Amino acid sequence: MQCRPPKSNNQLKDKAFKEKACAQCRSRVLEQVFRHPRRCILALGGWSNTALTANYTFKITQKRGEVYNVNQPREIDEVETRSAIPVVPAVHPAFLLRGSGNPRVFREDVALAMHIAFPDRFEHPRPDVWVDPKYTVLETLPQIREYEKYLRQEILDHGGCLDLAGDIETSGFSPFEDYILCIGFYQKDKDDIAFIIPGESLGTDIAKAALRRIPTISSSGYLRSLTV
Q1: For labeling, which of 3, 141, 202, 204 is most exposed (least CB within 10 Å)?
Q2: In the chain, where does the domain assigned CATH 3.30.420.10 lie?
Q3: What span, in angstroms and rounded, lies between the C-alpha atoms of 125 and 78?
Q4: Is the pTM of this model over 0.85?
C-alpha cells in the first residue's frame, strides 16, 4: 500500500473519494504491475479489483473466483510484460476476520491463483471436466447393516477417525406433513462413492436401528466429522 485516502463518516462521500483516488492512481498501479513480470495476480478485496479494472460497481462477493485478464494500457511502453495478466479476485482476509465470508471458498480462490501461476505444481481446485458421480443405493436391510460394518472397518483402517458427510433430502420443511425422500452418506476415498438409502427402505424398526448406529459411532468419538 503506497497511500491511504482519509476516511469520511459520510459513506457516499467516502465512496466517491475512493473512486476518484483509484482513477488518479490507476495508471501508476498498472505501470508497476506490467513493469514487473508476473504469472497471475491475486486481487484481495473490492477496491484492488476496482483499481485494476476501473469498474466502480465491482462486487467482490459476486465476482470472487471469476478469473479475468488485465491488459497493458497503450500509454505504458517499454515494460517487460506485454501479454494480458490473469487476475483472480478474492475477498480480503480482513473480511474473513470480521466473521463474514467463507474461509473454504477463500482457500479455493488462493489455490486457483496458485494453479494458474504454477500449473505443474498445483492442481485446479475446480476442474472443468465434469465427472459423473458414483453412488450405491442401499435398498435392503442387509445392505444397510453391511454399510454400517463397512464404516466400522474404515474407522479402524484410518487409525480411529473418519471424515464422513451426510445429508437428508425431504419433501418439504414441515416435520409433521413432509417425509424423508432419501438419506445420503459420502466419504472421500479411493472409490469415491456415495451411499444413498431411499426413504421407503427406512420403514422397519430394524432398518432405523441400523441407521442410528452411524451417528452413534460419531458421538462415541470415532468419527472426526459428520454433517447431517
Answers
A1: 3
A2: 134-227
A3: 36
A4: no
In terms of Cα–Cα distance, which of 35, 103, 44, 19 is closest to 72?
35
The Cα–Cα gap between 193 and 16 comes to 52
Query: Based on the number of CB atoms within 10 Å of its own CB, is 19 exposed (0-12), middle (13-18) or buried (19 or more)?
Result: middle
Sheet of 225-227: strand order equals: 134-137, 193-198, 180-186, 163-170, 225-227
**Fold type of domain 134-227:** Nucleotidyltransferase; domain 5 (3.30.420)
Q: What is the pLDDT of residues 154-183, one digit of tens each?
A: 888 877 777 778 888 888 888 788 888 888
Ramachandran quadrant class, 130 (left: phi over 0; alpha: psi -120 to 50; beta: rest): beta
- What lies within 8 Å, CB to CB, of 102 at 6+ separation is none
